[in-house]
Write a structure and sequence with these properties.
Blueprint: H1 2-9, H2 14-19, E1 24-26, H3 28-31, H4 40-51, E2 56-59, H5 61-67, E3 76-79, H6 83-89, E4 93-96, E5 102-107, E6 110-116, H7 124-129, H8 148-154, E7 162-165, E8 170-173, H9 177-182, E9 185-186, H10 192-198, H11 201-213, E10 216-217, H12 219-222, H13 225-228, H14 237-248, H15 253-262, H16 273-278, H17 280-298, H18 305-326, H19 331-349, H20 354-366, H21 377-382, H22 387-399, H23 405-416, H24 419-429, H25 434-446, H26 452-460
Parallel strand pairs: 3-6, 9-10
Antiparallel strand pairs: 1-8, 2-3, 2-7, 4-5, 5-6, 7-8
Helix pairs in contact: 11-14, 11-15, 17-18, 18-19, 18-20, 18-26, 19-20, 20-22, 22-23
This protein binds adenosine-5'-triphosphate and magnesium ion (MG).
């Protein structure tokens, strides 16, 4: 009933007329996607929905990635069936979401997202009074169903709005997405300002997709981003965190972070990025770390989100730590307090889930322990469950010039040595070479990012 009411009230938006194009049906011999490239689960689910009398298509990122010759992360399905109707077809399924209701259909170990075609939104005044959006135009509810064409128009970019029918093996393209893929162009659907207002995360998606897929963001799509960047402040911090993580784990984290900063999108995500990147050591540290991360992702190696956030925030922690020490706090409590402070500033903007917070803090708190190279302590450090992450972190600090490379080298040798050799290394560190060790520590300390005073000045600027 509500659906009928809304559809009666709603007027078609300019967004639709702006971008609507004639439907183009692209046959398989032209687009080249074969049914076998779809996972058996997604294929089975789409076919079953069609057999039940509805339409069902593979949609969005999967079609885009297949056209670009990439392997899709997952396969989403769009259908004319309502969530309840889909739910009835599949025993192993459940309806999820409030803002955007859809069905998760389970098939073996795979879960396929099935969403009903979305319909048009009402005009601005209506959306606010009906509490569909907030006062900035951000969409709070999105459960108005519509036709396939309307669904295409509601998607974010033209390259994400194509439908692949796995039975007929055709692509249905309402918005020239196919041509944009071929010319490597990222184009938002409809009026860019209105679309970013509805969902400011689309600005982040533009940066991520362009970097990841090597696309040029069309001028009209890029133009309002700088001005509208502050709208990210109204997005729930947990959603920002998810999006930020996608960006950092995209395999193109470095270019994404550089682009975010160039477009002024980082203020609401990593408020301290400017300060960090303006210091040569901070910039070197983050650049090295993100390059490493990208290389790991491209080799299919795991990357820990905690490690990444520990990296991104480290130089801010370092400045704060130095300032607290200069104010008379003892080194370890000072480090603990500095890390607490930086995490709480960061969490106001972008909520890092607690489970990551704890690991980030452990990685930081272990850093001073690498500088103790005597007695049993190095052995104890080796057995710490976070040793590997903290060790990699310390190596990056050395490589970026923050710490003496000799420290990293010592640990590299210590790690590959057997127990006897380790004992020898430790005893040689005590008495005769003590002076030398002290000197090298002193040198390392002088390499720290900035003096406490400078650190304070930079944070305030
Ligand atoms: P990837 O999976 O590589 O992150 P994707 O485009 O598949 O990219 P999803 O988050 O899986 O991203 O979204 C699936 C599809 O849903 C998109 O291709 C797009 O059509 C639509 N979509 C996602 N986010 C938005 C949004 N913020 N506004 C409008 N449409 C969106
Ligand atoms: Mg996807």
């Amino acid at each position: 009933m509500i659906r009928k009411f809304l559809q009666k009230v709603f007027r078609r938006k300019n967004a639709a007329s702006d971008s609507a194009a004639a439907l183009v049906i692209i046959p398989s011999k032209r687009h080249g996607i074969r049914r076998q490239q779809i996972t058996p689960c997604a294929l089975k689910i789409a076919t079953q929905i069609q057999q039940a009398g509805f339409s069902a298509y593979i949609v969005g990122g999967a079609v885009r990635d297949l056209l670009l010759g990439l392997t899709p992360k997952d396969f989403d399905i769009a259908t004319s069936a309502t969530p309840e109707e889909v739910r009835k077809i599949f025993r192993r399924s459940r309806i999820i979401g409030r803002r955007f209701r859809l069905v998760h259909v389970m098939c073996g170990a795979e879960t396929v997202e099935v969403s009903t075609f979305r319909g048009p939104l009402p005009d601005n005044e209506d959306t606010l009074s009906m509490q569909l959006t907030d006062q900035h135009g951000r969409l709070l509810h999105d459960n108005v169903f519509g036709s396939q064409e309307e669904d295409a128009i509601r998607r974010d970019f033209t390259i994400n709005a194509m439908f692949y029918d796995p039975v007929k093996e055709e692509i249905l393209d309402y918005l020239n997405g196919y041509a944009d893929i071929k010319t490597k162009r990222l184009r938002i659907i409809g009026d860019p300002i209105q679309r970013y207002r509805e969902d400011p995360v689309r600005m982040l998606r533009a940066v991520r997709l362009a970097s990841k897929l090597g696309l040029q963001i069309e001028d009209k799509t890029a133009a309002p981003i700088g001005d509208l960047a502050p709208l990210l402040q109204n997005v729930p911090p947990s959603r920002l965190f998810d999006e930020m993580l996608k960006l950092l784990l995209s395999g193109h984290a470095l270019s994404c972070v550089v682009e975010l900063r160039a477009r002024g999108l980082h203020h609401g995500l990593l408020p301290m990025l400017d300060v960090i990147l303006e210091q040569p050591l901070g910039e070197r540290f983050i650049t090295l770390a993100l390059k490493n991360t990208d290389a790991r992702i491209l080799e299919n190696k795991p990357v820990s989100p905690s490690f990444l956030f520990a990296i991104l925030l480290w130089h801010e922690v370092l400045s704060c730590w130095n300032a607290l020490k200069a104010a008379g706090e003892k080194p370890l409590p000072a480090l603990f307090n500095a890390s607490d402070k930086i995490l709480s500033i960061q969490n106001k903007k972008l909520a890092i889930p607690r489970r990551f917070d704890a690991i980030i803090q452990e990685i930081w708190m272990m850093q001073p322990r690498f500088e103790v190279r005597a007695g049993r302590k190095p052995f104890r450090l080796l057995t710490h469950p976070r040793f590997r992450a903290a060790y990699d972190f310390m190596l990056l600090r050395c490589e970026s010039g923050e710490l003496d490379t000799e420290l990293g080298e010592w640990w590299r040798v210590f790690l590959s040595a057997n127990d006897n050799e380790r004992e020898k290394m430790l005893s040689s560190q005590i008495s005769p070479k003590r002076g030398r060790r002290r000197r090298s520590r002193k040198k390392a300390a002088s390499n720290l990012v900035a003096s406490p005073e400078n650190a304070l000045n930079t944070s305030n600027s």
